[in-house]
Write a structure and sequence with these properties.
alpha/beta, Rossmann fold, two-stranded antiparallel sheet, 6 helices, globular
């Protein structure tokens, strides 16, 4: 006699990339059209993106709360989509995933042109204008040089994220 059991694995997928790279598009497609957890969503008022720089920490706390809410509800498939330039920025999500028994995946989004070359900051900045985000070219360039790479092994990536720490200048 053969017995078949169906096991569902709860997953949280962390999408990271520079502004204009297509993180939201990829995460939304991954979720079948549902909205991913994103700090940017905090700034959407009446369907319009209304960025307020000093509220970025509050936006990230809100995003973490949304992710936690989904994990508490045992949502099977969660996507978190933010720039995540530094590894420590992903740490709250990795810790939550472990707390709630979620499998963790990382997806780095790199926008390319028709020749399969990475888009430069100028082109990415232009793309952010289409979404109403209007991220300056210099900010995108700065992110490129501060970028901490995604490691090929998920286990190595989880370990690196968990070992990372928030810089003292940012801690509160």
């Amino acid at each position: 006699m053969t017995s078949t059991t169906t096991s569902t694995t709860k997953t949280v997928t962390i999408f990271r990339g520079r502004p204009g790279s297509g993180k939201t598009t990829a995460a939304t497609k991954y979720l079948g059209g549902e909205t991913p957890c994103e700090a940017d969503t905090f700034f959407v008022k009446g369907g319009k993106f209304c960025y307020v720089g000093y509220k970025v920490p509050e936006a990230h706390k809100w995003c973490q709360s949304e992710c936690r809410r989904k994990m508490e509800a045992e949502t099977e498939k969660i996507a978190v989509s933010n720039t995540f330039v530094k590894l420590w920025e992903m740490k709250p999500y990795v810790e939550m995933a472990q707390e709630f028994g979620y499998e963790i995946r990382f997806v780095e989004i790199v926008a390319t042109n028709s020749a399969d070359r990475e888009l430069d900051a100028f082109d990415l900045s232009k793309r952010t204008q289409n979404s109403g985000h209007n991220v300056p070219e210099k900010a995108i360039t700065d992110m490129k040089y501060k970028w901490e790479k995604t490691l090929p092994s998920t286990d190595d990536m989880i370990e690196a994220v968990l070992k990372s720490s928030i810089p003292p200048s940012i801690r509160k």
